[in-house]
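On to our target:
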Amino acid sequence: MAQILADQQGLGPNPIDSTGICLLSLDGGGVRGLSTLHILKSIMDWLNEEREKVGLLSVKPCEVFDLIGGTSTGGLIAIMLGRLEMDVDACIEAYIELAEDVFSQKSSKSPVKINGELKPRFDSTKLESAIKKVLTQNDVSVNALFNDRTERGCRTFVCAIDSDTTSIVRFRSYGLTGWPDYGATICQAALATSAATSFFEPVTIDDQIFADGAFGANNPVDEVEGEASNIWGSEDRDLKELVKCFISVGTGKPGIKAFETSIIKFLSKTVVRIATETETAERNAMERWAKHYDKNRYFRFNVHEGLEGIGLDEYQKKGLLKSATRAYLTHTTQRHRVRDCIHNLRLKQSRASASLASAVNEYRIRVQMLLRTSHKACWVVPFARNPNFVDQRSQHTKLDQLEENLFSQHHPTTLAIYGLGGIGKTQVALDLAYRARQKYPACSVFWISADNAESVQQAFANISLQLDVPRAKYNQTNVAKLLQHHLNQEGTRQWLLVVNNVDDVEI
């Protein structure tokens, strides 16, 4: 209703719809990240089809989302889509190639070193080489800083764990006042978020040791929400008021078998804990964003069945990953959710600016004023205009003076028309009412016959009913006070109240 009214009055689209914040959160999950990419491909392909229908150019994720955050596998994808500004098709191709290069050969058959520490099962140098290969293919220096001080439309961050404090760390492609910049290269940030326990060696950056952020942030939806609050939120404004679309994408629900075949069995309990935390984060986020979910502003996509038996390193099962994800997306429920997601994203025109909160606040104030003043002017006058009313020049001049006195003031004006009975006071007031209706179509006109207290009370009730005055229908005793309060509210349009036949001042 509010948006329809705003469109009719030429206010344009809601800033939330055109420039509101779009967020993308990407879970970790080893090679199952390929499922994430197939989900994103479905969304982006459909979105660009809709854009093409209205003559708009195709867009990449970095041109739609204002912030992309990921952990582990999701972190690598976030870097490729956000920092390297790749499209989804190129990202899928690079991701498959990277997985084959990294997971095709294990570096150690023994799970532990002589001192009892876990050995990484895969060669970290191969992962580093694979990441640098992706950088080179995208014409980016292998030594390029993750935050190179270049302002981009899409901000990107990845999660890792500080091995000393076990706290979650965010490596950012942008600066953020009050938060540390670790000076990491793109390659270092990618290695840090991918350094899964027992899979790869931890990464050292500026004398700090980092591992992947799967413990505590495998589903980084909380981290994305927190980071968005740091960027666009404030103490007196809830982030949710500024979010246009929030998409969280998982890597499929894994089974115990997948953990035990992919990782040494004595670690399975720890990895099951990661899966539990991932689902808990999903559930908690759904509760916090319930209203946005209902309004098609929050979306969670995660394959429920078919990926349980795929281990974190089983890159050979890319066909199963693709078919299970397609089956999930073609289910009626998910197809409708993707459709709703596209309907939301297609309205995005430009990235969220620092002034978004001010623009949204100004728009809402203007809409509220429109809502207060948009009601059709009420006309509660029980008499027709007298066609025989004498419009003498002197009489016409007096009516002009009355009209000017009533409508040229910026505050309520009270006038009294008095004289002997039968000289035409009622006709003057009636003609004035019709003139007001004609010259001021937004002005409501009310007529009260003050013949007795009952007629006055009934007139108040009728007017209150016309204006839909809150509580007046059920509180006839105080209807006059309720009507007075309603008419005196800020933003109420002009009104003219004619009280006729006031012979008894006590009434």
Remarks:
- The first strand starts at residue 21 and ends at 26.
- The radius of gyration is 34 Å.
- Residues 375-500 form one domain.
- Confidence is low (pLDDT under 50) at residues 4-10, 112-116, 256-269.
